[in-house]
Design brief:
single chain; alpha+beta; two-stranded antiparallel ribbon
Amino acid sequence: RDSVSIESSPTGPTDWFKEHLTKVVGDGNNTGLWSIRWLDNFTLKESFPCLFQIIDNKDALILQVCYSVEQGMGWSWNWRRPFFQWEQQSLEHLLSLLQWIQFCHNK
């Protein structure tokens, strides 16, 4: 398909790239959690600035905070202080985005 028609369809605009392309970060050992655009083409630092301000390790790699659990992935956060209510809502939004993430070993 040509690049002009990729963004539209007979029923209206689409997000073709988001629906058909993925970014492989492997096991997360070389990808910065907060500083690299690995989730929906934005950094978590840009999208969740209030959480970035209170996270303890701003340079953490994905592998350092993510672990496998029976139902999928778990996240081990180290916060500098307890949350305010709006920060808790931001964390819940972030976790809703992260719930579908799967990491591949040896990539």
